[in-house]
Amino acid sequence: DETEFRNFIVWLEDQKIRHYKIEDRGNLRNIHSDDWPKSFEKYMKDVNCPFKMQERQETVDWLLGLAVRLEYGDNADKYKDSTPDGAKNADNTAKNAEPLINLDVNNPDFKAGVMALANLLQIQRHDDYLVMLKAIRILVQERLTQDAIAKANQSKEGLPVALEKHILGFDTGDAVLNEAAQILRLLHIEELRELQTKINEAIVAVQAIIADPKTDHRLGKVGR
């Protein structure tokens, strides 16, 4: 808006730049005059503005910079220790993003919070609350992350096993312990089978890399 623009220029000169004496600002203040553009052009030359009147955006930026420089020069002691709002917000954001930097481990609220988490996650209590917090972190990483939960939710289908058909090989003297030992042995055998499968896959992969391309595994021959 042309009227707003002219009022803006007058405000800058009256309040911040003050290049003219008060009595010499009449032509610039007469914003409804048809000669105002000429007065503004003269004003730009007087303040040594490097831009032309048609370059309005550049002119506005330059005049604002001049006003800020003059304002600072008049009140250097007031502004020299000021921190930009953007820097303050950045500092606050950093502090909020890292709330544990200034954490007081002796704070009763901190201890109560760690104890509540430990009880919720069924973690054994310890005299050092930082040790408990570390245990909580490990448990959360290993059991409660999205990947861990997804892996735990993957159901494995298997066949029912009759324990009485598997010989334990020793007797603990307790039927319950014997049954638990049988289960552990079967689980161990399952893990060994899975390990052997992975070893076989690794061997095949290595052979595929180092063997002759013409190897026929079905014939047990290498090359032609």
Automatic annotation (TrEMBL):
Family from the record: Belongs to the RTRAF family.
Family annotation (PANTHER family): CLE
Instruction: Give the originating organism.
Output: Struthio camelus australis
What is this protein identified as?
A: RNA transcription, translation and transport factor protein
What Pfam families does the record tag this protein with? RLL
The record's annotation in InterPro entries points to: RTRAF
